[in-house]
């Protein structure tokens, strides 16, 4: 599905969500009601370059919107995500998280999958942030609520 074909169905609580990118693995949106960049992952990326491309698209939207929202947050919905390769974990830890932190992102909420193995992978990816606070949640509702509280600080 290309970006031009993507027409999200929005509930009343999500009427501030703006689509940015979508493919079979990932959907990237701006939710300006929080405000946050929401990445929804489904399954596994086709290959490492695909994973890196998705992360680059997330950073692209972050760079585009950070000046509009001084307290921009990140939200990752991993409920249906599968694990990624070790090289992708390393890429996230050494490239993506530092880029987010350097841009001013201070809060990342992650909705965790049921798979214990994927949970371990996610925790490994997000271990030892320099300045960002990362919280793990079982539901989108909890994650969104926490990010809204962080915006009010």
Assembly state here? Answer: single chain
Order of helices and strands: EEEHEHEHEH
Average pLDDT score:
91
Beta percentage is 25-35%
Shape: globular
User: Which structural class should the secondary elements be placed in?
Assistant: alpha/beta
N-C termini distance: 38 Å
Mind describing the biggest β-sheet? 6 strands, mixed
Q: Order of strands across the biggest sheet?
A: 1-2-3-4-5-6
Rg estimate, integer Å: 14 Å
Are there runs of 5+ residues with pLDDT below 50, and where?
1-14
Task: Give the number of helices.
Answer: 4
As a percent range, the share of helical residues equals 25-40%
How many beta strands in the DSSP annotation?
Answer: 6
Describe the structure.
The structure is a single chain. This protein has 153 residues and is an alpha/beta fold. The protein is built from four helices and six strands, in the order βββαβαβαβα. It has helices spanning 48-65, 86-103, 116-125, 140-152, and strands spanning 17-22, 26-31, 36-43, 73-81, 107-111, 133-137. The chain has a six-stranded mixed sheet, sandwiched between helices. Strand 4 (73-81), helix 2 (86-103) and strand 5 form a beta-alpha-beta unit. Helix 1 (48-65) packs parallel to helix 2 (86-103) and helix 2 packs across helix 3 (116-125). 29% of the residues are buried. The model is unreliable at 1-14 (pLDDT under 50).
């Amino acid at each position: 599905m290309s970006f031009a074909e993507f027409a999200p169905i929005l509930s009343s609580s999500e009427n501030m969500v703006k689509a940015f990118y979508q493919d079979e693995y990932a959907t990237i949106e701006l939710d300006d009601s929080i405000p946050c960049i929401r990445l929804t992952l489904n399954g596994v990326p086709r290959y490492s370059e695909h994973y890196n491309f998705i992360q680059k698209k997330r950073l692209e939207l972050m760079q585009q919107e950070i000046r509009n929202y001084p307290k921009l947050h990140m939200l990752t919905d991993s409920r249906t995500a599968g694990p990624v390769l070790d090289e992708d974990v390393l890429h996230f830890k050494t490239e993506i998280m530092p880029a987010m932190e350097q841009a001013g992102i201070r809060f990342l909420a992650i909705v965790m999958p049921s798979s214990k193995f994927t949970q371990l992978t996610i925790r490994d990816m997000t271990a030892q942030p320099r300045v960002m606070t990362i919280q793990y949640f079982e539901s989108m509702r909890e994650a969104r609520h926490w990010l809204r509280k962080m915006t009010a600080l």
